[in-house]
Amino acid sequence: MPDTQWPEYVVFQQDKPERVHHYAGGVHAPDAEVALLNARDVFVRRPECISLWVVRRDLIFGATSEEISLDPNWFTQFEVPEGRIEKYAVFQKHGPRGVHEYTGTVEGRSSRDALRAALTVYANQDVTVWWVTPEEAIRRSTSDDIAALFAIAETKFYRDEGQYRTQEALRKIKAMRDKEQSSHGE
Amino acid sequence: MYGATIDLMDDPRDDAEKLAAFEARIAAGEKIEPGDWMPEEYRKQLIRMISQHAHSEVVGMLPEGTYITKAPSLRRKLILLAKVQDEGGHGQYLYHAAETLGATREEMLDLLLTGKAKYSNIFNYPALSWADMGIIGWLVDGAAILNQTMLAKASYGPYSRAMIRICAEENFHMRQGQDIIITLAIGTPEQKAMAQDALNRWWWPTLMMFGPPDTDSPNSTVLIRWGIKTKTNDELRQTFINQMVPELQSLGLEFPDPDLLYDAESGNWITGPIDWDEFWRVIRGDGPMNKERLGARRAAHEDGQWVREALAAYAEKHEMTSAVL
Q1: Domain-located, residue A163
Q2: pLDDT single digits (tens) A112-140
Q3: Given an 8 Å threshold on Cβ–Cβ distance, is B312 in contact with A28?
Q4: How far apart, in Å, do the first and last CA atoms of chain A sit?
Q5: May I ask the CATH class of domain B31-288?
Q6: Contact indicator for B172, B180 with CB cutoff of 8 Å
Q7: Number of structural domains chain A divides into
């Protein structure tokens, strides 16, 4: 079998219950289940995560605020398919330095239709890039996963640099050696 | 009209305008993001740097990986295991950052496995004792932190963000290395001799980690101009020397450099000459561990083949099931 590349999954991470999911990066995996496990290994080695979402990159539809504003026909010139109405998750990137954050959901008949809805519902001048993806395309970790995927990082204190009082030790050793040397000199 | 539009797009004057706008954004401290216009040379240099950096993280797992089963206590074993896992994760963040520039993970891995891509020269030296785990953490990760703290300010957003995340984790790596060396240096004479031996072997190679001297560094000018790097190789190397010399000397360890002296006027520690012939020899593949490192990487990739096949087969079956049911 040729060793060809698996699809890329975009990873969103939630740090605390009161925070929204934010973009963390990407992993490659043959399916969403493995993507979730890879995302855990790559992005959650430290206790700063309570939930992960993964979405195949090709199922995310995006547009920059700039390209939308430059195109006078953006809101009108596209065909809306007749299919069923689906729920879409909306992500916004704020300012030049932000990363995408989950904003909420809208309904639409296509990604483009959903993004048009998002632009009205979640209008915000600060948004630089919009992403929408069908809710169904998101594979989410569940509360049952917390113990197995996330809680184990909580007691790994040795990953915390603050656990190593090496600068203090170096200062003490130097002071002791200096004292020793000056008493030899007397 | 159609043809005119095409001509306009290919007009170098148009590119000159875009280039000016691009350079103005960098000068203003803005980050360049994946979809933004960028000169082809900027993209090329970034892919080269980020993928080399990713390879270094992945190959860097090898010298330390062999010591996981040889760690002197369970605590040290857990720490080393966590550190090696971090390196693997850092490689993944970086491959992802390079992907945002259009490089594919498969082609980057292929370049590494066929020996065409470079990775940090330091990993072509062998780890010979437990004390090397301490010196690698202190010196090698210490050098990496200086370089990465600079790159955290890089003009390309995804690279900068990966660096911020990596730097936070690397501080743990350096601290655990210091912890090992301090323990050995204040231990028995045999333990102190182990620390000294490790410093003797790693000191010069770590100085070479910052790359060739500025007079011989072909990429530096363009990297600094476009805000990818903000300091030169020699500037970073001097910062490193000034930081490391007094700290390790305070433990009673000696540097393998009879010419090392403190220059009170500049406040710098001045080393003897660095053997750049050795640097170029190792980079060209003739270092002590080049063949072993690449061999180990290839073996790991080939040994993982059946796992990838099994996962792909499962995914395919699962997809068929969910399509039918």
Answers
A1: yes
A2: 999 999 999 998 778 989 999 999 999 99
A3: no
A4: 78
A5: mainly alpha
A6: no
A7: 1
Of A28, A42, A164, the CB nearest to B179: A164
Residue A47 counted as domain residue: yes
Tell which residue, A90, A157, A149, has the closest CA to residue A124.
A90
Q: What is the pLDDT of residues B139-197, one digit of tens each?
A: 999 999 999 999 999 999 999 999 998 998 999 999 999 999 999 999 999 999 999 99
φ, ψ dihedrals at A180, nearest 5°:
-60, -45
Rounded Cα distance, A130 and A119, in Å = 9
* Residue B69 · residue B12 · CB < 8 Å: no
In Å, how far are A101, B12, B190 from A117, measured between CA atoms?
17, 40, 71
The count of CB pairs under 8 A between chains A and B is 96
Whether the CB-CB separation of B301 and B113 falls below 8 Å is answered with: yes
Has residue A33 been placed in a domain?
yes
Q: Do residues B34 and B158 lie in contact, with contact meaning Cβ atoms separated by under 8 Å? A: yes
Distance between B64 CA and the closest CA of chain A, angstroms: 16
- What ipTM does this complex have? 0.87
Q: List Cβ neighbours of B237 (8 Å cut-off, separation of 6 or more).
A: B207, B210
Of A75, A71, A66, A165, nearest in space to A113 by CA: A75
- Residue A1 located in a structural domain: no
CB contact under 8 A, B86 and A45: yes
The A-side interface with B (CB below 8 A) comprises 1, 3-6, 8, 25-31, 34, 41-43, 45-46, 64, 96-97, 99, 129, 156, 158-161, 163-164, 166, 169-170, 173-174, 177
* Sequence ranges of the domains in chain B: 31-288
Nearest by Cα to B226 from B147, B155, B149, B151: B155
Domain containing residue A175: 8-185
Give contacts of B305 with chain A, Cβ < 8 Å: 3
